[in-house]
Amino acid sequence: MTKRKTFIIVMGPQGSGKSTQASLLADYIGYKFISSGKYLRKLEREENPIGLKLSEFWKRGEFVPDDVINDVMFSLFEKEESSGFVIDGYPRNHSQLKTFLSYLNINNWELRAVIYLEISEAECLVRISNRAKIEMRIDESIESVKKRLSLYHEETEPLVAEYNSLGVLKKIDAERTIEEIQQNIQFALGV
What we know:
Elements: E1 6-11, H1 18-29, E2 32-35, H2 36-45, H3 49-59, H4 66-79, E3 84-88, H5 94-107, E4 110-118, H6 121-135, H7 142-156, H8 159-166, E5 169-173, H9 178-189
Parallel strand pairs: 1-3, 1-4, 2-3, 4-5
Helix pairs in contact: 1-9, 2-3, 4-5
């Protein structure tokens, strides 16, 4: 029997600060931080065949196909020794969520909470523009960003209602300082 694992998802549109907040939270509570986007970009940098193939999707502003991202993420969860994970960037749509919840159920693992970072699209665009200048990310051209924000509103944002019905949703105002947002997350989780 596998060791029981616990998951916290941090979600919000591109530029909401998901990775920053998820990483800070993971450090604070002793969980492993996993960013699907950072992991896939790492595979691409390493010239891993999967990473190179999948980079074609995000460079066009598209999501990676569900079956592929599910396999990549599940493999990562299984090989990591951590008893807890803070995830950024997964699941991104209803199909992925359904598969993820089944996967947790089969393994007797727990979805502890979903942190939803609420932020205006205007603020997202300002943050992304600033980040793109610093990090020189190829997936953050204006066209790519607008396409990804549109996909987020169409496919990912509707998951908020599903998480709410599961009783795991925590809404956080993400138009504050990094420190204030993190304090609000920790308070919402009771840690």
